[in-house]
Amino acid sequence: MPRKDVPHGGDQATMADEFTQHHIKARDEDIARYCFIPGDHVRGKKIASRLDGVWLVSDTRGYLVHTGTFRGVRVTVCSTGMGGPQVAIAMEELGNMGADTFIRLGSSGGISPKTGVGDIVIATGSYRGGGTGDEYLPKPFPAVADYQVTRALVDAARDLGVPALVGPVASVDAFYRPDNDEHNELLRRGGILSLEMESDTQFIVGLYRRFRCGAAFVLDNGPRIPKVSVKSGNLNIAHHQKDPLFVKAEETLIEVGLNAIVRLAMEDGELR
Fold first, then answer.
1. Do 109 and 194 meet the contact criterion of CB atoms below 8 Å apart?
2. In the structure, how many helices (H) and strands (E) does the chain have?
3. pLDDT of 92-141, one tens digit each?
4. Looking at the domain assignment, is residue 272 inside a domain?
5. What are 148-206's pLDDT values in tens digits?
6. C-alpha distances in Å from residue 33, one per residue of 36, 68, 76, 94, 98
7. Is residue 212 in a domain?
């Protein structure tokens, strides 16, 4: 059984021989098969707060890791911060400790005309605008989500009465990239629903390492509901802690993700 005295980190982590990974200081038995990998540490804590018997496993190198159970399913939550490299390292090290199913619950900005603040998007794949995945598989290789995980997310949303948008998203490396209306129009023409920064890496690493991966997002802007509460640089973005549409939808997103994990565990024979 994992020890639940103190989180791993700092000097304690450097001295513990049983910690097998370089960045995430945890023991193999601390990590569950099913992992949520949100970017935002605040969202990670919100997910963790829904778990029974939850404990802080590790807080090192920008990774905040909790493990607990939800309806009898053992779950790990590892918030990764921003960008593809952080996601890839987390997946590699969590995978080395026994995880094989990764669901990203993130935020994203809508670009499709049918998107707006508070919408839920479930990704079927991702446009590869990031660079980390290139270290695994070359650009012509598609970044697609695992069908079983995506179906579990879609079915969970349906059963909860959540009107999720399902389709491709696009990942980019530069959050404050210069406006490129022509490129964004091309993405819209291809059916891209929203922009974010990690899912292309997540899906490519998953395909390469034979992990099951899915992703769902709450939108913090979009053409359909243009009025938002914060202007950041050249972007209008809903405040993640204050905008009522976003806050409520984020709670819904977490509920969808947790119920999807239960579905997967039942299909995997982990629940009787």
1. yes
2. 7, 12
3. 999 999 999 999 999 999 999 999 989 999 999 999 999 999 999 999 99
4. no
5. 999 999 999 999 999 999 999 999 998 777 777 788 899 999 999 999 999 999 999 99
6. 10, 12, 8, 9, 6
7. yes
Half-sphere exposure of 171 (CA within 13 A, CB side): 31
- Tell me the residue range of the domain where 199 lies: 10-267
Within 8 A by CB and 6+ apart from 190, the residues are 127, 168
Look at the chain and count its residues.
272
Tokens of 133: 């995945």
Residue 70 β-bridge partners: 73
What DSSP line would sit under 185-239, residue for residue? HHHHHTT--EEESSHHHHHHHHHHHT-EEEEEEEEEE-TTS---SEEETTEEE--
How many structural domains comprise the chain? 1
Judge whether 205 and 92 are in contact, CB under 8 Å. Answer: yes
Identify the CA nearest to 247 among candidates 15, 14, 40.
40
